[in-house]
Specification:
disordered C terminus; 2 domains; 8 helices; Arc Repressor Mutant, subunit A; mainly alpha; single chain
């Protein structure tokens, strides 16, 4: 059976909506910022790293690389810039830089807070603009969206062989990403 025939249309539609929502959120966040910038004048990658570090204080650069699924060299570059900006501090690891732990500085904590506030304001304004039926549909979809988020996180955390598209079938007998059932 051709791959196109096995593709779950719901998955394609959700992927499209999520992708468009992410772009719309970034555009709205830039529009809300001074001179069209994100909080702190940072990139989305920098804000994601700061947010990850807020959730995992004291993480080592290698841990952040694994959590964010980034190359260690990319994390090192991001951390270097964030340290120069005074948003991240490095502790320990004098003899071996790989053992250093990272923490947000007070300015880093403030930037993460502003990023979260911007996102909350954008979503509150957008939700307020919706009609009652759409608001109800979103409310009813929250449990499924939470479960979907957990499933996506689990794919990111799974061993390489289990993550490969086409190899993941749902153990409950529902179709996996490849459209096949177990």
């Amino acid at each position: 059976m051709p791959a196109e025939a096995r593709t779950d249309p719901l998955g394609l539609e959700i992927a499209d909506v999520v992708s468009r929502r992410r772009r719309a959120m970034r555009r709205a966040a830039r529009a809300a910022g001074a001179d069209g910038t994100l909080p702190g004048g940072l990139s989305v990658a920098q804000l994601e790293l700061l947010s990850c570090l807020a959730d995992n204080p004291g993480a080592r650069p290698g841990q952040l690389a694994r959590l964010l699924r980034l190359a260690p060299s990319s994390v090192a570059t991001l951390v270097y810039g964030l340290r120069r900006a005074g948003l991240v501090s490095r502790h320990g690891g004098q003899l071996d830089r790989r053992t250093a732990s990272l923490l947000l500085t007070p300015d880093g904590i403030a930037v993460v807070g502003r990023w979260q506030e911007v996102n909350e304001r954008i979503l509150q304004a957008a939700i307020t603009a919706l009609g009652p039926a759409s608001r109800g549909a979103l409310d009813a979809a929250l449990p499924g969206l939470r479960e979907l988020t957990g499933a996506v996180d689990a794919l990111a955390d799974a061993p390489e062989a289990d993550r490969a598209v086409g190899n993941a079938a749902d153990p409950r007998g529902r179709a996996g990403p490849d459209g096949l059932t177990s």
